[in-house]
Design a protein that fits this description.
eight-stranded mixed β-sheet; 10 helices; globular; DUF364; DUF4213
């Protein structure tokens, strides 16, 4: 799909890879790297999964250099090593942004941080990943929460929130909010499988910047990511371990808002 979009006009080459500072012990600051292409396009990817950040920092000779072609990096998304997967996802996200920009397509801004889920009192929200800041709002609405996590130390249940390692617990959820990390570790299909009865499945996070069509076709109802509007400011924030802030805005993309990949290719020439 991506290669077809660049048959007539080659994609920009790599300009630089930007890493966040070392993550603090037990902290979540500096979660994303950015692959910068020569035209200024950025692709983001999560680097705190497993030992990804440490692996990237430990082998600078293996990292992309200025002038490198981007395709070999993108192919690393399917590699077995987590650090290559992270670079690959960043490359795919950057290439996708190139296609969007060439077509003049800008996804709609997001109105909230909950994937536009229309949650009603008494419903159960499934979370894949721990979105703790949302809990006060969910409890205030009378929404029950089931969280599927990777970290065993978080497992437990209290005040309407159940945290489990068992993804089949999502089968009873009315709607699901999932982290974009599922794209990185290739577990999206496994998480979608028990969610066939859910009304909506929202996939959100700065890593969500890949071509939308395959995800929408597989049952993802909304893609929520970060749309960089000021590249230099975004890189400065990233390198200092800060939030992107005004350098990016959140977007929310559904099938109703999206013209489709063939239309984007036709527009971009």
């Amino acid at each position: 799909m991506l290669q077809a979009a660049f048959e007539r006009r080659a994609p920009p080459r790599v300009k630089a890879l930007h890493l966040p500072p070392p993550p603090p012990p037990g902290g979540r600051r500096g979660e994303f790297c950015a692959l910068e292409l020569q035209d200024g396009t950025l692709g983001l990817s999560y680097v705190l999964l497993d030992a990804t950040w440490a692996a990237l920092a430990a082998q600078p000779s293996c990292l992309p250099q200025a002038g490198d072609e981007v395709w070999p990096l993108a192919q690393g998304w399917c590699a077995p090593e987590p650090w290559r997967q992270a670079l690959g996802l960043a490359a795919v996200n950057a290439l996708t942004r190139c296609v969007f920009d060439r077509a003049g397509f800008v996804p709609p801004a997001s109105a909230d941080s909950m994937g536009h889920l229309d949650l009603q009192p008494g419903e159960t929200l499934g979370m894949v990943g721990w979105f703790a800041p949302l809990l006060p709002r969910l409890r205030a609405r009378g929404v029950k929460v089931v969280v599927v996590e990777l970290r065993p130390e978080l497992v437990g249940e209290e005040e309407g929130v159940r945290i489990t390692l068992d993804r089949t617990a999502l089968a009873g959820c009315d709607q699901v909010l999932a982290t974009g990390t599922l794209l990185l570790n290739h577990t999206l299909s496994a998480m979608l499988a028990p969610c066939r009865q859910a009304r909506r499945f929202a996939l959100i996070g700065p890593s969500v910047g890949v071509p939308p069509d395959p995800l929408l076709a597989r049952g993802v109802s909304l893609l929520g990511g970060s749309w960089v509007v000021e590249g230099p400011a975004a890189l400065q924030a990233l390198r200092s371990g800060q939030a992107l802030g005004a350098a990016a805005r959140k977007f929310a993309l559904t099938a109703q808002d999206y013209p489709g990949w063939p239309a984007l290719m036709a527009r971009g020439g």
